[in-house]
Write a structure and sequence with these properties.
Strand order of the largest sheet: 1-2-3-7-8-9-10-14-15-17-18-19-20-21
Helix content: 10-25%
Order of helices and strands: HHEEEEHHHEEEEEEEEHEEEEHEEEEE
Oligomer: single chain
Shape: elongated
Largest sheet: 14 strands, antiparallel, barrel
Strand content: over 45%
Number of domains: 1
CATH topology: Porin
CATH class: Mainly Beta
Low-confidence stretches: 1-15
C-alpha cells in the first residue's frame, strides 16, 4: 500500500500522547444500532417515523405519534473475525449481550393552533458495541514495533536522560529494557540509537487486543405535525462513551540464533477512555401524497469531553547482551497511570430519505407495506480534537493530529434500504440492507460495512413485539504500529457480527 501520512506522537513524563486517527474514527464509522424494527429495515427510518428510533435518526418522525408508547429492546451479538497478516490467517470470536434500546414517547393527539399532534420522547440507545477481540500474527522481515520507539528518540534528538524518563509509555520502556540502545563512536561518545531487533532475518509478531465498552446516546426529542403533511422535530443528544482495550504485543526472533542479542519482547498496554458530551439533531418530513414521504435530518457535531488512562509494561530478552529486563510506566509515574483530557468533535451528518407506500387496488387507503431508502453523508474529515489545556506543546500536538485526520480520511456516503409488508391479521415481515463506504483516502485500504437484516413484528392496539436478526460484514485494515520512514504494514480484517434483538412495547 502507499505510505500514509501519520503524526509522529510526542512523549512526556506527565502528559500522555498516544492517539492515532482511528481513535476519532471509532466514534463515527460503525453500523448504528437502533430499535429492532429500525434494525430490520436496514436503518432506513429517516422518512418513516412512528418508531422510537426517530429520536436518534430523524426527530421529525416523532410527529407521527398519536398515542404514547414505551419500549424495551435488549440485543445479543456473536462476532467472528478473520485476519490475514503477512500471509498468515487467524480467527477470533466474541459473544455479548447488551441493553440495546429503552425509551418512552408522550404523545398529545389533540390539535393545538397549527399543530395536529405533538410528541416528546426520552430514549437511551446503545449506538455502537465495542466488545471484540482483535488477534493476529505473522512473520515480518520488513519492520518491527521497536522502530516506532527508535523514530521517536531520533526525531527528538533525545539524550540518554530523556530516553530514560520522558517517554514512560513506550520509548523509555524500550530503552530501559535494551530493546532500543545507544550507539557510540570509538571514543565512547553516544552518537545515536539503534534497535536490537534483527529485522533482516525476521521476527514473529503477535497482536492480541481485547476491547470492551459501548457508545451510548441519551436523547430528549420533540416532534410535531401540521395537518398530517409537514412534520418537524429536534432532539438534544447526550453521548456517553465507555471504551477499554487490553493489548498484548509480542515479537520473538524467527531464527534459532542465540548470539544475536534478541530473543523477543512483550509489551502489555491497558487503556481506558470515558467521555460524555452534547449535540443536537434536527429533522423535517413532508408528505406530498398519502403514499409518498420525503425527509431530511441533520446531526450537528457532538462535542465530547474525554478522560483517558493508560499504563504499560515491557519485558525484553536480550540474551547475552543484558539478559531479561523489565520496566513499567507505573515505576516511572509514581505508581499512577498516565492521564489525558481533551475534547473531540464528531463528524457532521446529513441524511436524505424517501418512502413509498403501496396498497391493494381495492383498498388504496390501507397500505400493505412500504419501501424506504436513506442516503447519509458523513463528514469524516471534520473530526477534530481540542486541547483542554492551552500550553503550546499540547495545542501543537492536537493541531497536527487534526491535520493528519484530514490527510488520511475522506467524506463518504452510506446507503440504507428497507421494506415492510403486512400479512394477514396483525403480523408483518421486514427486510433491509445497508452499505457504509470506506472513510480512508488510500484506495489500497479496502474498508466497508455491509448489513443484511430481516425480522417479524406483531401488533395489537396496545402491545407490540418485534424480532430482528442483523448480519454485518466488515472489511477493514488493522495497523499493529505506525512508522514514518517506511510503508506501514497491516492486517486485512474481515469481521462478521450476527445480532439478534427483541423489542416489547406498550401503547397507552
Amino acid at each position: 500500500m502507499k505510505k500514509l501520512l501519520f503524526l509522529i506522537l510526542m512523549g512526556s513524563s506527565v502528559t500522555m500522547y498516544a492517539q492515532d486517527p482511528e481513535d476519532g474514527l471509532r466514534l463515527s464509522w460503525f453500523v448504528p444500532n437502533g430499535t429492532p424494527r429500525s434494525n430490520a429495515l436496514g436503518g432506513a427510518m429517516g422518512s418513516l417515523g412512528g418508531d422510537l428510533s426517530s429520536n436518534h435518526i430523524n426527530p421529525a418522525g416523532l410527529g407521527f405519534y398519536k398515542s404514547s408508547e414505551i419500549l424495551l429492546a435488549p440485543k445479543f451479538s456473536a462476532k467472528t473475525n478473520t485476519f490475514n497478516y503477512r500471509g498468515t490467517t487467524s480467527t477470533s470470536t466474541d459473544n455479548s449481550s447488551n441493553f440495546g434500546s429503552v425509551g418512552i414517547v408522550f404523545a398529545d393527539g389533540q390539535r393545538h393552533n397549527n399543530w395536529t399532534s405533538t410528541a416528546f420522547s426520552i430514549s437511551f440507545n446503545q449506538v455502537a458495541d465495542y466488545n471484540n477481540r482483535i488477534s493476529f500474527s505473522g512473520k515480518n522481515n520488513f519492520s518491527s514495533y521497536s522502530e516506532k520507539y527508535l523514530e521517536e528518540l531520533v526525531r527528538d534528538q533525545a539524550d540518554t536522560n530523556a530516553a530514560l524518563s520522558n517517554y514512560i509509555f513506550g520509548s523509555s520502556l524500550a530503552f530501559r529494557t535494551y530493546l532500543v540502545d545507544t550507539m557510540a563512536n570509538a571514543s565512547g561518545a553516544v552518537t545515536g540509537y539503534q534497535s536490537l531487533v534483527p529485522i533482516s532475518t525476521g521476527v514473529n509478531q503477535n497482536y492480541d487486543a481485547i476491547t470492551s465498552g459501548s457508545y451510548n446516546e441519551l436523547n430528549f426529542g420533540w416532534g410535531g405535525n401540521m395537518s398530517d403533511k409537514l412534520y418537524l422535530g429536534a432532539s438534544i443528544v447526550m453521548p456517553m462513551i465507555n471504551y477499554s482495550r487490553s493489548l498484548t504485543y509480542i515479537e520473538t526472533d524467527a531464527t534459532n540464533n542465540t548470539e544475536n542479542f534478541f530473543g523477543g519482547f512483550v509489551l502489555n498496554e491497558n487503556f481506558s477512555s470515558r467521555g460524555w458530551g452534547l449535540g443536537a439533531k434536527f429533522g423535517i418530513i413532508y408528505k406530498p401524497e398519502a403514499y409518498l414521504r420525503v425527509g431530511f435530518a441533520l446531526q450537528t457535531p457532538q462535542l465530547i469531553s474525554f478522560r483517558d488512562k493508560m499504563s504499560a509494561d515491557m519485558t525484553t530478552n536480550t540474551e547475552k547482551y543484558a539478559g531479561v529486563q523489565s520496566a513499567s510506566s507505573s515505576e516511572l509515574n509514581d505508581g499512577y497511570p498516565g492521564t489525558r483530557e481533551y475534547t473531540l468533535a464528531t463528524p457532521l451528518k446529513a441524511t436524505f430519505s424517501t418512502s413509498y407506500f403501496f396498497a391493494s387496488p381495492g383498498k388504496p387507503t390501507q397500505p400493505l407495506g412500504f419501501i424506504s431508502a436513506d442516503l447519509e453523508w458523513v463528514n469524516y474529515t471534520g473530526t477534530k480534537y481540542y486541547a483542554n489545556t492551552y500550553d503550546k506543546e499540547t495545542s501543537d500536538y492536537y493541531s497536527n493530529l487534526n491535520s493528519t485526520i484530514k490527510a488520511v480520511y475522506k467524506n463518504n456516503i452510506n446507503i440504507k434500504i428497507g421494506t415492510e409488508i403486512k400479512l394477514n391479521g396483525n403480523w408483518m415481515v421486514r427486510a433491509g440492507t445497508g452499505y457504509y463506504g470506506s472513510p480512508y483516502k488510500d484506495e489500497a485500504v479496502k474498508a466497508s460495512h455491509w448489513t443484511v437484516s430481516g425480522g417479524i413484528g406483531y401488533r395489537t392496539n396496545r402491545h407490540f413485539v418485534d424480532l430482528t436478526l442483523v448480519n454485518t460484514t466488515t472489511k477493514d485494515a488493522i495497523f499493529p504500529y505506525r512508522l514514518n520512514d517506511k510503508d506501514n504494514t497491516y492486517a486485512d480484517y474481515k469481521g462478521n457480527n450476527l445480532v439478534f434483538s427483541i423489542g416489547y412495547g406498550i401503547r397507552f
